[in-house]
Amino acid sequence: MIILNKTFYEPGTLKVARALIGKKLVRQIGGLELSGMIIETEAYCGKEDSACHAHRGKTKRNSVMFGPPGHAYVYFTYGMHYLLNMVTEAEDKPCAVLIRAILPIAGLEEMEARRKRKGPELTKGPAKLCQALGIDKSLNGWNLTSGDQLWVEDYKNIPAKLITATPRIGIDYAKEQHRKALWRFVVKAE
DNA sequence: AGCACGATCTGA
DNA sequence: CAGATCGTGCTA
């Protein structure tokens, strides 16, 4: 069993965000299998976290975060971008991990075609990777443990030494304690 | 019903 | 550094 199951997504969001680094994100689309190693994540930790979408309670848009762990929370922002999150922790605990970047493993050409662009920056950035993998609103609420369309597999064990924790990106509106929190995880340059 | 703005990216 | 571009949620 290499596909990560529900149990993987149940622990604390910070722990899961860290654990997702080095895992393999797989997307089936148009008969192809696109994949990449996750190299950057951010944790959004429930109602208490003023940077989290669920901070002001449950709404139609963020309802997936209130559901069971192991599902995809995909939402639309800036009038043009989709962002991919993995729901974590127990039901009714609205937490999720934002997937910010992957290192392409398979399907590079298809990703380039979808992005209409080339180069190593292809899938660095939460909106870019959604474009490259053809991820949109239709995958909001998707079960990540079914082994269909979209899932995450075990891949590499990244030593803790190689993982840096930094403040999260694009959340200037949040309270200082949450702005400063080191809840973004990145792999140091290979 | 109207409005301000966003977990972003690009090109100048 | 501004522009693209629109769904969402807050205010009235």
Describe this structure in words.
The chain is built from five helices and eight strands. The two termini are 28 Å apart. It is an alpha+beta fold and 190 residues long. It has helices at residues 6-9, 13-20, 108-115, 126-133, 176-180; strands spanning 24-29, 32-45, 72-77, 81-88, 95-106, 150-153, 163-166, 184-187. The mean pLDDT is 97. The longest helix has 8 residues, at 13-20. The relative contact order is 0.24. Strand 3 (72-77) and strand 4 (81-88) form a beta hairpin.
Globally, the shape reads: globular
Biggest pleated-sheet summary: 8 strands, antiparallel
Question: Considering the protein shown, what is the CATH homologous superfamily?
Answer: Methylpurine-DNA glycosylase (MPG)
Radius of gyration: 15 Å
- Overall structural domain count: 1
- What proportion of the residues is helical, as a percent range? 10-25%
Query: How many beta-strand segments?
Result: 8
Query: What's the CATH C level?
Result: Alpha Beta
Low-pLDDT runs of 5+ residues are none
Look at the structure and give the mean pLDDT. 97
β content, as a range? 25-35%
- The arrangement of helices and strands along the chain is HHEEEEEHHEEHE
Total of helices: 5
